User: Fold this.
Amino acid sequence: MSDAPRFALAIHGGAGTIARSEMNPAREKAYRDGLEHALRMGGTVLREGGQALDAVEAAVRSLEDCPHFNAGRGAVFNADGQHEMDASVMRGDTLQAGAVASVQNVRNPVTLARRVMEKSPHVLLSGLGAFEFAHREKILLEDDQYFFDQFRYDQWQRTKGTDTYQLDHSDGEHKYGTVGAVALDVHGHLAAATSTGGMTNKRWMRIGDSPLIGAGTYANDATCAVSCTGHGESFIRAVAAHDVHALMAYKGLSLAEAVRVVVHEKLPPLDGDGGLIAVDRTGRVVLDFNCTGMYRGHLAADGTPVTAIFKD
Ligand code: ASP
Assistant:
């Protein structure tokens, strides 16, 4: 007899070399408050019998609106001093997916990704084309000032004019990245969503794993829903999110075992620092990472938000 909850939700706010010594109580509280708010937004949808897709969108929108996380409002600066954002969503019941890459001035890229899935014949739109679509769909836009953050600006100044780019969570002062959510709803359906500003000082319209279905995001009602965070190039090469699904579908592994293989065996040889969150069709959640920390949270069986940062 399983004691798994009837619905489940897990979120992340990025993973990386997060040192306890650099965390002060006020900063930790700000991150935890942001995570808890997102869990509450997604949890309300699920408790009221809503869809997993609505829950992951609500949770990710909340994280995109929070300036502490590298997505939406808190997106990092690219080499041109702009904010280029990537996002994706996938539903496990129909295997429909939508994504956007290198979009600017979109308040909630996750909502635009969902709109691509529902209102276009495509899966992934990028750059100006995605912006044109956003305009047509009356998606909420913001001016550049909305995305300005002094911390982010200073972070960019340290790499500006150099050939180096920086994963948000590998920066000495500001160690968090991408946001994501996975959910199981009371109807037995799974969904996943991921959203990011990518890397500080990125050039050439660099795109990471977050908007790529199978790499940074994947959902399939037969197995699990997954959202990744970490060194995007490695996650792309490992096809990380889909690999968790494949290990369960083809090898019969449990969710925990499949996640362990991907995070601790497959990614490290590819320099794949990071982690992922996943939920299976019974509502079990796994939040795992191969670096020092991951901003993360899930709903306990009684619906209470639980958040964590380090390997507790
Ligand atoms: N995976 C994201 C990217 O490579 C970054 C991150 O998760 O922090 O764009």
